[in-house]
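Researcher: Please translate sequence to structure tokens.
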Amino acid sequence: MAVPFDIEHVARIVAGPNAAANLFAYLHAGINRDVGCGLLTASVYDIPNLRSRRVFSEDVEAYPLGNFKRLDKNLYFETVLAGRRHFSSTTIEEIAGVFFDWEKIQALGFESNMNLPAIANDTVIGTINLLEKKGHYTAERVEKALAWQPIVTLAFLLLANEGSDEANFQPGLSVARNAGMEGGAATA
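Model: Translation complete:
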């Protein structure tokens, strides 16, 4: 499979200002072009404390930044976080088996998903989370998305390099401060 990104362009982004946000924007455009996505979010993980935090959202009303969410040890956890592999589904029934907010996902018009992990030092440090209409994330589209995995990982490493617990890929949007924690497993 051909590399879908321009490595020289990536090098210029990484060397420039706002590298994490700019590389993520490049990734986002590439995923939309090559794979298609109705809604994209991104999450970072605190696996020892079994929680995640959203660091990007195309729909901040439905999926705001911040708000730690509990991680459940289910098929998603075993596949993505423990197994360090992507997770995808093509039906709402598959989504309902792992995501507590499957009804919200369906109400937004989505019934297919893909979660692509950023893996560094043998640990999942983040995921991009894609939602689309029923049947969308076929084996061919999953393969195209997997070609972007090095850029996914690099973007999350750049975000971690910013050194703030509130860092996100959307400069100007602050992380929602919530005393509580959203229930259920990680999702979009």
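Researcher: Any highlights?
Model: The mean pLDDT is 91.
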